[in-house]
Amino acid sequence: MKRQGLLTEQSSTNLDSVTLEGDIKELREKFVGVKNTREDAEARKARDELIQCLQLHDRRSLDCWWEVQQFKEKVLRLEREFVNKNQ
Predict the structure, then answer these.
(1) Cα 86 from Cα 67, distance rounded (Å)
(2) Confidence (pLDDT) at 49
(3) Residue from 36, 34, 45 nearest 71 by CA
(4) Helix (H, G, I), strand (E, B), or coil: what is residue 58?
(5) So where are the chain's domains?
(6) Contact 64, 54 (CB under 8 A)
(7) pLDDT of the residue at 52
(8) Among 66, 62, 21, 63, which residue's Cα sits nearest to residue 46?
(9) Helices (H), 1-87
């Protein structure tokens, strides 16, 4: 059933592989400038802390709610900065 929805969506848009490849290349070029920022390091640190917590509490993942929240906030900030920079 999902496949039919995907086919309908594809037929309603005028995307082809060349257009899509160009869009992906453009996004990759824009993302290169964001990749090594201070915020990126903060997001990586938050991710590492989350992974560490999840490994430590492998049977009680809800104990890592704080680490999850911190990681979400760092990623959200990165996304907003990326969008604002590339508008």
Answers:
(1) 29
(2) 92
(3) 45
(4) coil
(5) 11-85
(6) yes
(7) 92
(8) 66
(9) 2-12, 17-32, 38-56, 65-85
